[in-house]
């Protein structure tokens, strides 16, 4: 399908949460907007399709959010997981602006529900979408289309024309070939490069062949690479990404959130050599689950195995795939490809190091190990009650943090530091400005919505002026 015109006020590249928030905001300000989505209509929305919630600051509970989550606490949480690696002006702006998102999204038809049981204990901090990410996306698309936003599916921006930091036009490609499109302002919201295995290998080496991509196969970084080649300033480490430990049986692409494993705090994780390699109980899972993809990626063959016993099997939301099950540790080890003797040695050493305490997975309890390296700081209980269970883990890449640099107006910065007059960015393609490393559950969606609104407002303002 070709566009209905050859020129628009605002061209938005991408079709997920960030892109739609930008398009809606620009359209509400009177701009004529076109959205270019690489996927077909059924698969539209990029990684937003797989989301469930968004982390938002708020000063009081509201009947669904169970209590306050002040900006100061949010910022402290972000500082902890990023180890200070962030543009704090943009981080503070995003967190403060996140207070507006509940009302904004509700106004577009998005509805919320209480947090689901077993989903990382996020009832106070995160707003869960009724019907999940796809339902949220559908509401945003309806709102955009009601405002007259035009959407081109199965179409991609394959070139951009930039003169002295000024966007002058783009080349689009669909099944029939390439064609030009002009617009007075441009919003880049087309995701990262996580589905481009060759690009991942540039950063990670051959290990990247064993990575699984949790989200869309369409995020190949075409637009990011174009902007890099056109002289846009880049920020972030190409190795940094949102990478979680997912079920090793997940598909190469598009497995989604159901492949994530939340059982790590309740057991022990062994590498292919049958050895533990990190503290499974370091902190609450929402603040640590996103480091485990990188941890597993650093292990032999990029694989891990989490072992739990019958005491823990009902404490977490299960994966879409059932665990391996056996009545003895040795039999379980053989089932998942571990050496039985090495597995027994590791588990026996762990069990002997466990200090008796009052187990409570909702707090930093006193169940820990002593004299063990690495330690387990909380929720440490002997793995001794059959039947025993195991999940095999692989690195699951959600999105990459290599990004175009933006300022507080969402304007893309050129390599000389000057902000573009009419180019903006939102979502994964700029999230590395806030996320230098680490992750908080639901913050990616927050960054997309906040900077989508900022970009849409800036683009419309430029057009008006």
From TrEMBL:
Q: Which InterPro entries match?
A: CobZ, FAD-dep_OxRdtase_2_FAD-bd, FAD-oxidoreductase_2, FAD/NAD-bd_sf, Succ_DH/fumarate_Rdtase_cat_sf
Entry keyword Oxidoreductase: yes
MF terms from GO for this chain are: oxidoreductase activity
- What is its cofactor? FAD
Q: Where is the FAD-dependent oxidoreductase 2 FAD-binding domain?
A: 9-443
The species this protein was found in: Microbaculum marinum
Name of the protein this chain belongs to? FAD-dependent tricarballylate dehydrogenase TcuA
Alphabetical keyword list: FAD, Flavoprotein, Oxidoreductase
Q: Which gene encodes it?
A: tcuA
Q: Which Pfam families is this protein grouped with?
A: FAD_binding_2
